[in-house]
Each structure stands twice: as C-alpha cells, then as structure tokens.
Amino acid sequence: MTWLSLSLMSFMALMVVIVYEARWVYPEIQAYFSQTGSLTGQQLATRSREYLQRAQRYLLSESLFEDEQQALRLNLDLAYGLIDIDVYRQKYTCTNTSLQTLTLLTQRLDENNVAPFDAAAELLGPIECLTRIEMNQLDLRGMAINEFSQNTRRHNQVVTYSSLVIFVLGLLFWRMHERQLRRTEHATEQMLIWMQQAMCDPLTGIGNRSALHQDIVNNEGESLALILVDIDFFKQYNDFLGHPEGDQLLRRLARLLKHVLGKDAKLYRLGGDEFAAVVPCNDDALLVSYCDQVTSALQEADFKHPAHPDNERVTLSIGAVRFTAGEFTLSTAYEAADKALYRVKSAGRDDWQITAAA
To answer: Which residues cross the membrane (predicted)?
Structure first.
C-alpha cells in the first residue's frame, strides 16, 4: 500500500458515503410520501367527501330531473369507489359502516324508497367518517414529515462529520505521498532527462533529429541514401483545413513512406512538414527508384489539398543523396540533399532531384 493509494481510497470512501446518503434518501421519501404515508390517502378521502357533498346538493334541490338523477348516482358511485380501499378498511372502523350506508342508500334510491331529504341526511355519517379520515391522514403526514426531517438531519450530521474525517485523512495521505515523491526526486530527475532525450516524434511515432544522428553513427561505414521529403504548401493546407487535419496528413504521409520504402528504411520527422528517410543504397539507380516509388504512391493515395495553388491533391518536393555513413558525414549529406530539395522548390515543386554521392 502506498500513500497515494491510501489517499485515493479515502476519497473513494467519501464517494461511497455520499452515494449511500443518496440511496437512503430516495427510499425514505418514497416511504413517507406514498399512499399509506398520508398525502395520497388524504386526497382520496377529500375527493370522496366532495362527491358526497355534491350528491347532497342534488338531493336537497327542489326537484330532481333525469340528468340530475344520473349525476347523483355517478357521484355516489365515485365516492364509494374512493373510500372502498384496504387502507381505510384496516385503519378506520367507520369505513365499512359508511360503505354499507352508501350501498343501502343507493338501492333505496333506485327503488324510490326514500325521500331526498332523508337520503341527504343519511349521507352525513359517511361525510363525517371521511372528514375524520382526512384529519387523521393530515396528522400522519405531519408526523411522517417530522420523522423524515429528524432522520435527514441525523444522517446529514453523520455524513458531514464522516466526510470531514475522510477528507482530512485523504489530505494527510496525499501529503505523505508528496513527501515520498520528494525523497525520490533524484530518480525522477533522471527519468525526466531520459524522457527529454527520447528519440521518437510524438505525433507520427517515427524518429526525430536525435534518432537520425544516432542511427548514422551506429551504421558507420555503410552505404546509405538520405531522402528529404517536404510537403508542398503545407501552411496553406493547415490554414484551410485546420491543424488537426494537418496533423492527420503528417501521420498518413509517415505511414505511406514506411510502406513504400520497406522495412529496411528508417524514417524521421525533422520538424514541421519535413521528413527524412535513410535507406541502404549502393547505387544511384536504386535511389532514383525510391524517389519514383514515393511519387507514384502519393499519386495513387490521392490526398486532397483544396488550398494547393497548382494542384488539387497533396504533392511533395524531394531531395536525395547517397553517402557513406560516419560521424562527420551526416551534415555534409544533409546539406547536399537539402540543396537538391531547394532546387525542386525553385523549379515549381512536385518533383524530385538527387545530388551526386557525398
């Protein structure tokens, strides 16, 4: 176990506490505000009472027309349906009595066996029962809310204090981790030096200038060819399509060069849009073949260049030279290949030239 892992575990524990709190709160809210909790039950009783009071108004009117009789029966049925639930039956003894009253009253109304005024008086009992249910449900709701508030306050205190403790421990562990890092400062500095001397271009994955120099030194005495490749009007490409597309073109060109020149070739990005390739080469005819192959492969790839002033696709300027590898020959070979590249650019680009062996 490291100090860093302990610090991370502390912060993970803090997240667990927060998640636990969230998972606790939602079920509690569901429990306290469900139908049996109070709010819905109180609303059902209120609706049922309103239907009965509406039915009373119909019964107390001077005369009942046919449509009013239908409305009366509908209100009684709706009131019956809203009070006829298990919660009311189990918790309130007046529920069954009220249901029986409504059932008998409905039958007598259908048989015209009761006076409207008497029927309205008989509804007072169920209305009183529903009023009692409403009040009790409101009391239960208040009690549930109070209990929920107390539990929430208690949980918040627990979460606050535990989070504070965990956070402080996390900071302490992180401090210990920083202290441990300082003790290994020398090793870290050595790693940074090694990283600075790394010989890989981070964008394309091929070598860089340092790698080119090192490879030439390591192959001293061998007959090699240095090929310099420059993308024509690369700045215009970047300006028109954006740097992300320009980076993508650089990666695609690196893959194309690697494919064309073969596994014996070593590729380098010297900066910007300038590439270099070092390949084993014993005669100029082979070097000419390499340059032709790169040009032909690029034409087949048909990389679009909408900002090219002379063409609709990407073109290259290539300068090459054949030389014998050695510690002091790279600069000479590079200068010769660069002069050939400059001649191509001066002549209008989209071509290649080679310089006599350096």
So the answer is: 6-26, 158-176
Tens-place pLDDT, residues 231-281 = 999 999 999 999 999 999 999 999 999 999 999 999 999 988 999 999 999
Q: What is the DSSP letter of 304?
A: B
Strand order in the sheet with 274-280: 266-271, 274-280, 223-231, 316-324, 351-355
Q: Which residue do the tokens 């892992």 mark?
A: 5
How far apart CA 166 and CA 270 sit, in angstroms, is 51
Q: Are residues 164 and 309 in the same domain?
A: no
Backbone angles phi, psi at 93, to 5 degrees: -70, -25
CATH at residue 311: 3.30.70.270
Pairing of strands 351-355, 223-231: unpaired
Task: Tell whether 185 and 247 lie within a shared domain.
Answer: no
Location of structure tokens 């054949």: 322
Lowest-confidence segment of 50-54, 199-203, 275-279, 332-336 by average pLDDT? 199-203
**Proportion of the chain above pLDDT 70, given as a percent:** 87
Q: Are residues 266 and 152 in the same domain?
A: no
Residue 200 lies in a domain: no
